[in-house]
Design goal:
Blueprint (H helix, E strand, L loop, with lengths): L3 H4 L3 H7 L33 E5 L10 H10 L4 E7 L11 H18 L3 E9 L10 H4 L4 E5 L8 H12 L6 E2 L17 H10 L3 E5 L12 H6 L4 E4 L11 H10 L13 H12 L4
Parallel strand pairs: 1-2, 2-3, 3-4, 4-5, 5-6, 6-7
Bound molecules: zinc ion (2 copies).
Length: 289
């Protein structure tokens, strides 16, 4: 006879009574969750996120000033923020020409002096051109602490073209993070087709992090690709792609999507504390080849 008192005390008990291992709500899709061998307590949580990665300010198409944005992140008790405005090819989004990049870098250095030990990382969301080349020369790219690469234009490609374009950009030694892999916008456009395994393999081979873009209209990479990335040892950064202070909170949608795919705290790049991020960037910098 079923003992109702026990059966309904918690969801865990219901699963147990049915002879199943517990599945966190985000994973309930009847696709991957039954094969999930990890420990649910290791899945990344909103509280694990130590830094706000991939943000736009009014230097390009963001709404808030650099100072207001980073002060908010500091006040929210994050340890670091990554400022990555648009590169020059994204002219429609106020992408930064080379001289403006240099001015922004100086502004960030000034703020860093004032706000230490909080750290602002100098970055850019660098367009991947149709050729797979990045939107700046190496001498400009070398000034950033890290580089996020994304496709924003010429989105009509077949799978071969898109995959080759992405891989060429991933192989650029200045690339740190691959932004929104497929360019999809949920309810708006499907994104270009990619061979996600080949792209993830390239990230693994080049020590490149993949983005879980937390904008609720993107959630790109798709959660269903996370198990393969983890299998290949690729870390994932959960990034709000904030264009205003109010969008920092989008991190939580990215965390939910990432948990659905089984992302652990250990494999979440921006769950690393500041010191570890600095070390990580150093070893990437001195990577042979
Ligand atoms: Zn973007
Ligand atoms: Zn962006």
């Amino acid at each position: 006879m079923v003992d109702n008192k026990h059966v309904f005390r918690s969801e865990e008990v219901i699963y147990k009574a049915a002879g199943l291992h517990y599945v966190v709500p985000e994973m309930r899709e009847d696709v991957a969750e039954w094969n999930f061998k990890g420990n649910k307590n290791n899945l990344v949580t909103v509280e694990d996120i130590k830094g706000v990665v991939h943000n736009h300010t009014d230097w390009s198409d963001g709404i808030d000033s650099l100072e207001d944005f980073v002060m908010t992140c500091k006040n929210l008790k994050y340890e670091y923020v990554v400022i990555s405005d648009h590169s020059k090819n994204a002219y429609y989004a106020g992408g930064l020409k080379e001289d403006k990049v240099q001015r922004q870098l100086k502004a960030i250095e000034q703020l860093n002096k004032k706000l230490a030990p909080f750290r602002i990382f100098k970055s850019i969301e660098c367009d991947i051109l149709i050729s797979g080349q990045l939107d700046y020369d190496s001498d400009v790219l070398s000034h950033f602490d890290l580089v996020i690469i994304s496709i924003h234009q010429l989105l009509k490609m077949n799978e071969d073209k898109a995959t080759t374009r992405l891989i060429k950009a991933i192989e650029n030694p200045y690339t740190t993070i691959l932004g929104h892999m497929t360019g999809r916008q949920l309810l708006i456009r499907p994104g270009y087709p990619v061979n996600f395994k080949k792209v993830i393999d390239a990230c693994a081979a080049n020590n490149v992090i993949m983005e879980m873009n937390a904008n609720p209209y993107r959630l790109d990479m798709d959660w269903s690709h996370i198990p393969y990335a983890l299998n290949r040892g690729v870390m994932i950064s959960i990034n709000p792609d904030a264009h205003s202070i109010s969008e920092i909170g989008n991190i939580r949608w990215g965390v939910s999507a990432a948990r659905k795919g089984g992302l652990t705290k250990a494999m979440t790049w921006n769950a690393l504390p500041l010191k570890k991020i600095e070390d990580w960037l150093k070893q990437k910098e001195f990577k042979p080849g």
